[in-house]
Amino acid sequence: MSLTADQDNGLPLYQSVRQQLRADLEQGRWKPGDMLPTEAELARHFGLSVGTIRQAVLALVREGLLTRTPGRGTFVARFDTRGGFGRFFRFRDEANSPMEPSVRHLDTTLIEDGDPDIAARLQSPPGTPIYRVRRMLLGNGEPISLNISYLDSTAYPGLETLSLDDQRLYTVLERRHGVLVLRAEEDLRAGLPEESEATLLGISLSTPVMIVERTAYGHRGSVIEWRRTIGRSDKFRYHISLP
What we know:
InterPro entries: Bact_HTH_transcr_reg (IPR050679), Chorismate_lyase_/UTRA_dom_sf (IPR028978), Tscrpt_reg_HTH_GntR (IPR000524), UTRA (IPR011663), WH-like_DNA-bd_sf (IPR036388), WH_DNA-bd_sf (IPR036390). By secondary structure, this protein is an alpha+beta fold.
């Protein structure tokens, strides 16, 4: 591996190193979960002090691109899909007994003339063809929530040919397209389902639902996915343990 720092760009040295390391991450030099060279090794590659390298690495840790494990090293971060509002919900039946969850891939549709609002959420030009991926979360075989993901089709060709029953969407994007989800923002609200959503969930249009809208981001703030999750309120229980 050959790394060089541009010391003539007017930036502090650690920022030059940070930019170089970030570029290497974006180009896939290291994959999610890979361990980076030690700070001493990077210092030798750059011809700089360990302290300067440490500043650059810590900056990338704060950005969520790297993680540090004491006694082990520095690793390329993986997005934790267990985060977000979903980790606070438990699935229960009418008797308050736990339900065994599973995921069913309903369909992946290419929308040639994408909705302008969704295109804007994806930071894509109006009229960009958009993939709509619909998956159903089941509990004991019964619909619990409907996940509808939207992605820019020009970035992920061939997505409509894949079955996502037993695969996480983010894992597929990482393996097939080298795309890494670094962070996500979610909004939670109560509301009513749209007609197609109510039909798939087996509820009436007047049944309250929990709606979670997620925007998933990659490198440099690029939007990878916008998702709308509609959950049956009669199947959700909120649970959190506080200190």
